[in-house]
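Morning!

This is the sequence you dropped in the shared folder:
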Amino acid sequence: MFFFLSKTLNYLTMPLTIIFLMFVASVWVRHSKWKKRLFWTALISLFIFSNEFLSNEVMNVWEVKTTSYASMRPHEMGIVLTGSTIPFLKPNDRVYFARGADRVTHTVQLYKLGLIKKILISGGSGRLGGEGEPEADKFKAAMVMMGVPDSSIVLENETRNTAESAIQVKKMLDTLNIKPEDCLLITSAFHMRRSLACYRHQGVMLESFSTDFYAHPRSFHLDILLVPKAEAMSNWNKIIKEWVGFVAYKLAGYV
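The structure's back. Tokens below.
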């Protein structure tokens, strides 16, 4: 039930959904005062949430920064969270990646640089409708194709969200007799805060390695300051999803 409610709440709190509902309400409401208020609130909200400068500033604060390879110490295991493949595409004889493929490529690079000895991939299907092949299996197929030996990869392919992943991975680390402090958590920069919170709530104190950055260096060009951008709206979707997730996880006792 929690899984269903959290996914549904994510859709309902997206800026575009709220703005659309305000525009619709401004058409149907008869009271002229409220009609104007709804319309102008929707219009101003559309400008704010489509403004690249504002979304980039917030994303830049929220994302967890990464470190250079040269400054890192070797780790026993890298724990990479899934969430970047595209399901249902045909033919199904390959892995289709959306944004976030560097969760895989950077993990492979860490392995080949000797900064992680083994890779634990965690993630089943995070979609309400489910999908045929778990994402962890797809990640593994891509990593093996990139030259990582099958024997160096451990799979956890049944969990549906980060909270479930933390619980299951803790059990696996105990079974493998690997200390959390010898592990590296690998996921998208915008998702790292909630991920670390979930794992640390389970007593798994991991170091982080962020990938898949959405923020860019601050710029004051006119197109960034004034021109509405669909990418800005997408960034807000990511940020608000994480905020809603944090609140939901807190209420559920996951963080």
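Headline: The first helix runs from residue 2 to 12.

More detail when I'm at my desk.
O.
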